[in-house]
Amino acid sequence: MMRCLALAQGLKAKGHSLVFMISLTSKQFCFAKLAESAEIVTLPTMPKEHEPPWIMQQLKQLQADWLIIDGYEFGVKYRKELRSSRVNLALFDDNNNSGPLDVDMVINGAQNAEALDYQATAETAFLAIGEPYQVLRQEFFKVDKDNWQNRDSLTLMFGGSDPANLTILVLQLLAQSSAKMPITVITGAAYTQLPELNKVIEDSTLHVTHLHDCQNMAEVMVHTKLAVSAAGGSQFELVACATPSLLVVVADNQKLASRASESQGWCVVMDSQAADEKQIVSRCLALFQDTEKLRLMHQKALQQLITNGALSITKVLEQLSDKQA
């Protein structure tokens, strides 16, 4: 959702109109964020094989130039059916592991994207890949990130739903270790353990600020001394805020991009399949106490080039549309 929103902001900044087409299930989590940028069309509940024809009918009515899809459920057959429409098709991708892509444009802003051999799976597509095409919401271009002396907090953020329940487990272990630093806990709109989490916070002696469905992520990140975060798309937001980070890989599709980020020196990576919550907390506490190492990680993050990939992608979409006009 966040990278789609970031691209939408770039398109809107250039005067384009857009529509989000989302399922009823997703709508309850992301309506407020997306509605600020565009009209929302709700995909009716129907068998998966009936979705492409319905979508194609909507595209015809909207007189759309492009359909941009993002989701692991859009397989080879699904994409092929969508490609049969007259609308150009673009795909956000992570690992190039879903067969022939059959799209007009591939978007992958990860540092390692050029090593994923998209030429083999998307031979005729424009490849918007690599760091120049990283998409960030506009708020991340407006922060004062060179402010190391003002950072004092530990931020915990384990994704929109935190399926492994790491938020509660890590907080409980931090309490057992008598951690003294200010702690900011961020949970996403899809997080389902709010009553349990609130009880843990209420009963602990930790200094915790809990932000649910946070609307000002850049402002929080730019005041964070160390973030412990799920290693998803948030890693690009963290480096944009020059925030030293412990990235926890919670899904296979996060591994390659996270290791590439680690090589830049501003973060360290742990795999949740190889390390439990005790090891994560132990590494977190050791890092937080090593102020000089964190300062150096902050400096490494400041050296990374942060590009407005949403505007770069918008430019390519415009150029490709003009060629076919």
Q: Would you write up a description of this structure?
A:
The relative contact order is 0.13. α1 (2-13) crosses α13, α3 packs parallel to α4 and α6 crosses α11. The model has no long low-confidence stretch (mean pLDDT 92). The chain has 13 helices and 12 strands. The strands form 3 sheets. A 6-stranded parallel sheet has the order 9-8-7-10-11-12, with helices on both faces. It has 325 residues and is of the alpha/beta class. The longest helix has 16 residues, at 309-324.
What is the tally of helical segments?
13
Spatial arrangement of strands, main beta sheet: 9-8-7-10-11-12
Following the backbone from N to C, one meets helices and strands in this order, namely HEHEHEHEEHEEHEHEHEHEHEHHH
Average pLDDT taken over every residue: 92
Q: How many strands, what sense, and barrel or not for the largest sheet? A: 6 strands, parallel
Helix content: 40-55%
Radius of gyration over all CA atoms, rounded:
20 Å
Strand content: 15-25%
Bulk shape? globular
Report the span from N to C terminus: 30 Å
Number of strands: 12
Output the structural class.
alpha/beta
The residue ranges in which pLDDT falls below 50 over 5 or more consecutive positions are none
